[in-house]
Design brief:
One of its GO terms (biological process) is tRNA modification. Residues 187-197 have a biased composition (Basic and acidic residues). Residues 187-208, 427-462 are annotated as: Disordered. Keywords: ATP-binding, Cytoplasm, Nucleotide-binding, Transferase, tRNA processing. It is an enzyme of class 2 (transferase). By secondary structure, the protein is of the alpha/beta class. It folds into 3 domains: 9-225 and 320-385, P-loop containing nucleotide triphosphate hydrolases (Rossmann fold, 3-Layer(aba) Sandwich); 227-312, no CATH class; 397-461, Double Stranded RNA Binding Domain (2-Layer Sandwich). 48% of the residues lie in helices and 9% in strands. It has a 6-stranded parallel β-sheet with strand order 3-2-4-1-5-6, with helices on both faces. A hairpin with a 4-residue loop joins β7 (400-405) and β8. The radius of gyration is 24 Å and the shape is globular.
Length: 462
């Protein structure tokens, strides 16, 4: 039985980029008097509709879209807390108008934090919008500063995250700033509660963590991986023909203007990491310099396009992995598997029938509080993908094990991550090169101890 707060409904549309989430959300809004809330971090930024993949105005059917293009290019991407506060405020406004709130977007850590009570904050989320200027200034500092501060207040979480994983480091520090409690302690409480046979002994308020905030229907728009990869490649080609390079120029001009004004910009975060911008910088630099031949420029352009396609495909895989592991397990823990459906959009010519029509029927039954079908019965792909690919171990402190590969300069934070790394093609290739250098070196310089251990371990496996 699903345990939710109140009976007011929310429809959430999730899925990888390029699957048609926005189209489905608009169709739902048109039929059921809805308004749409954007849940995509890059689409928070104003302008740049091609780079950020905003749905064109003429395809929105006049449906109001909220939290779309609402922050400037110079602003930091919203933290989870900022997004949740602003989204809850919009949900209240939409309901006050007697309309259905529909959340759609590919930033699934935003979605998951909105759907479930935030035990890591351990306090009620305000429904008053929160702007970036209202949060602690330290959260705007460079990642290394955040990590140093986190190490001071919660060394367990500082060791948990990869030193370059700004979002997770920032979130762990934000939890401490908001609550005065270590995120590592809260994670441990949650783990103990899940494993305790007597649920009556749980700490006050801890039960809220696994509960949905509101009665929610989650629709996952998916596609077979090979089909989706081809679709994403074609979409990048279309982005180029629609004017992607003009937006790259616009963003670069904005950057140059700020630098000329004496400002500093951290290009490792915010809009600057959007796929489809950074990949074209080498081409753009050569174009502006003016000393490259047409053949060289064409080569750089082709490389930039291929990098964008590869980055998009990798991003889609990460989105799917999040849904299958984190969101899937969270929904299961909440007892809400019966309200989590996957719609197979692999067959593009039949997308309306396979995705939109089925999705609308599910929404209709959900709003009427009728019995919903078995989610795994909708398609073979649904039966496969709605089973969590593995448990979510992100809150299992007992499984955290930080290791650093000096050969590849890569840090792993769990034993499973480490096993994947040392068995990867990249690592084996690096080890092979290391062996050759060691054998051919006349100086016989000793390897670093950690690298020597990896060398010997790999040699045994080979």
């Amino acid at each position: 039985m699903v345990n939710t707060t109140g009976r007011t409904p929310l429809v959430a549309v999730v899925g990888a980029t390029g699957t048609g989430k926005s189209e489905l959300a608009v169709n739902i809004a048109r039929k059921y008097n809805g308004e749409i809330i954007n849940g995509d971090a890059m689409q928070l930024y104003e302008g740049l509709p091609i780079i950020t993949n905003k749905m064109p105005e003429d395809e929105r059917s006049g449906i109001p879209h909220h939290l779309l293009g609402c922050i400037g290019l110079n602003e930091e991407t919203w933290t989870v807390g900022n997004f949740v506060s602003n989204a809850l405020a919009k949900i209240s406004e939409i309901r006050a108008r007697g309309r259905l709130p529909i959340l759609v977007g590919g930033t699934h850590y935003y979605t998951q934090s909105l759907l479930f009570h935030d035990a890591l904050a351990n306090k009620p989320q305000t429904e008053e919008p929160v702007k970036n200027a209202d949060r602690p200034a330290i959260l705007e500092e460079p990642t290394e500063v955040l990590l140093e501060k986190l190490r001071e207040v919660d060394s367990v979480m500082a060791d948990r995250w990869h030193p370059n994983d700004r979002r997770k480091i920032q979130r762990s520090l934000e939890i401490w700033l908001q609550t005065g409690r270590k995120a590592s302690d809260i994670y441990e409480e949650q783990r103990t509660r899940r494993e305790a046979p007597d649920q009556d002994t749980t700490p006050e308020g801890a039960e809220e963590a696994s509960r949905l905030r509101m009665r929610t229907l989650v629709l996952w728009v998916g596609a077979q991986s090979d089909v989706l990869s081809k679709r994403l490649d074609a979409r990048v080609d279309k982005m180029v023909t629609q004017g992607l390079l003009n937006e790259v120029n616009t963003l670069s001009d904005f950057y140059d203007g700020r630098i000329a004004d004496g400002e500093s910009i951290d290009t490792t975060r915010g809009i600057w990491v959007a796929i489809g911008y950074k990949e074209f910088l080498d081409y753009q630099a050569a174009l502006r310099k003016g000393d490259s031949s047409p053949a060289q420029l064409n080569k750089l352009l082709a490389l930039a396009i291929e990098k964008t396609k590869a980055g998009t495909r990798q991003y889609a895989k990460r989105q799917i992995r999040w849904i299958r592991i984190k969101l899937n397990n969270a929904i299961d823990t909440a007892g809400a598997k019966g309200s989590f459906f996957m719609l197979d959009g692999s067959d593009l010519p039949n997308w309306e029938q396979d995705v939109s029509e089925i999705g609308l029927k599910l929404v209709d039954a959900f709003l009427k509080e009728e019995t919903l079908p078995d989610p795994s019965s909708l398609s073979p792909l649904a039966a496969e993908m709605l089973t969590a690919s593995k448990p979510d171990t992100s809150a299992r402190a007992d499984l955290w094990s930080r290791k650093h590969c000096e050969v590849c300069n890569t840090t792993s934070v769990t034993e499973s991550d480490w096993a994947v790394h040392i068995n990867s093609k990249r690592h084996k290739k690096a080890m092979s090169s290391q062996r050759k250098r060691a054998l051919n070196s006349t100086a016989q310089q000793p390897m670093p101890p950690a690298a020597q251990d990896i060398f010997e371990e790999q040699a045994k496996e080979d």
